[in-house]
Design a protein that fits this description.
Helicase, Ruva Protein, domain 3, 204 residues, single chain, 9 helices, 5 strands, two-stranded antiparallel sheet, Tetrahydropterin Synthase, Chain A, 3-stranded antiparallel β-sheet, flat, alpha+beta
Length: 204
């Protein structure tokens, strides 16, 4: 059966398995996500992907974006495993796109994993307080709160944001797509965004 690309990317994001392995597993499972995960486990694809995730990304480059008015700038540090990949056009393009993403979308964190636990708990407490008087069952409330957290992640985390050049993809999918193509670990290690403070009553 033909498998939707969105399902393939979702499975890949959940397991870190390669695109081809994810697609084949979904086809074998008839589109069932949980069965596809079990298939990947049996074939060792997830284990292999985890080993790849443990590799060190110690090379890379810094990419910059400067807005035309000179008042907004961003720097992104994008890491990979080898200098050969870091010098490649595809890697450089990704780094430049991510610098533009940071400038335009103003994320606060790289990913949900980089958010301090206290910050996550504080946000979760806010959502719980909002639903304090809601009569829904607790399991339903928990799912709603999880959905609100995921929405928050998509606002404040670079990897969870929609890519500004193609909103059908997340930044995370963009990164994992190139990682799968070149066969190396790629990750954003840090970023900085700067904007000049506007005089009172004006905007940049």
């Amino acid at each position: 059966m033909a498998v939707d690309n969105k399902l393939v990317m979702e499975l890949r994001n959940r397991t870190s398995a390669g695109i081809v392995d994810s697609k084949n597993a979904l086809e074998e499972a008839g589109g069932d996500m949980e069965k596809a995960i079990e298939i990947l486990k049996k074939k060792g694809a997830i284990k292999a992907a985890k080993k790849a995730a443990e590799r060190t990304a110690s090379e890379g480059l810094l990419a910059t974006y400067l807005h035309h008015n000179g008042k907004l700038a961003a720097i992104v540090e994008l890491a990979c495993e080898t200098d050969f990949v870091a010098r490649g056009d595809a890697f450089k393009q990704l780094a430049n796109d991510l610098a533009l993403q940071v400038a335009a979308a103003d994320p606060t964190f790289v990913s949900p994993e980089t958010i301090p636990a206290a910050e996550v708990e504080k946000k979760k407490a806010e959502f719980m307080a909002e639903m304090a008087d809601d009569k829904k069952p607790e399991d339903i409330k928990a799912k709603i709160i999880e959905g609100k957290l995921n929405k928050w992640y998509s606002d404040v985390c670079l990897t969870k944001q929609s890519f500004i050049k193609d909103e059908e993809k997340t930044v995370e999918q963009l990164i994992t797509g190139l990682s799968g193509t070149i066969g190396e670990k790629i990750e954003v290690t840090r970023f900085t965004r700067m904007q000049m403070a506007a005089p009172s009553g004006q905007t940049c």
